[in-house]
Amino acid sequence: MPLSTQSNFADPDAAYRLIVEAHRGLDDEQSATLDTALVLVLANHIGDADVLREAVALAKRGLGARQGQ
What pTM, to 2 d.p., does this model score? Predict the structure, then answer.
């Protein structure tokens, strides 16, 4: 199964708001813990190490771009 990078949400803005709202009222540590738990839950849902590897690489490339690399 290839990594899907196009939006699969009928309402992508609502999905974004859901994630943002999940962090409301959390301190930095709680927010990081929530993000970690969410990543692990969704990685398990994907269940494909190759897709997960591709997603990690894509996310890291995005991180590098934000840091000016």
Answer: 0.78
